[in-house]
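Researcher: Please predict.
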Amino acid sequence: MQIKLGEKIKELRQLDRRKQEDLAATLGVTNQAVSRWEANGGYPDIELLPTIANCFHVKIDDLFGYDNNRQIKLQSYIEQADRIFKHGDNIPLVEFLRNAISEFPSEWQLQYRLANALVSAGHQKSEPHTIVVKGCGSFQYNTEQ
């Protein structure tokens, strides 16, 4: 992914109808520094990023051009998981939810659905060293202490 921080700074500055000199004065840097950033000839110090973001009333992620549709994507995963669940086949659901959780590891809604799908597929919490799943000619043991 190519970082286009300078282009974003220029875009935000122009939207605010500011001159490079005004932004430089606000940030305490030289006009040449702002010009260099906007030409993608360099980057501002990392310590300046919160100040730049505050200056334009945006999040730091916005400076880097991240289209952060996190909530929309999460909701899409939840809806898709619910559709798969309605079909009644838990094996594809488990696989789908594991992939979704790899992208959203701390999302309880996905974890909850995965736990339910695992239980529905025959997985169960058990005592250490007992059989957890029987099937396909193999056994899976719980090895947690």
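Model: The beta strands are 131-135, 138-141.
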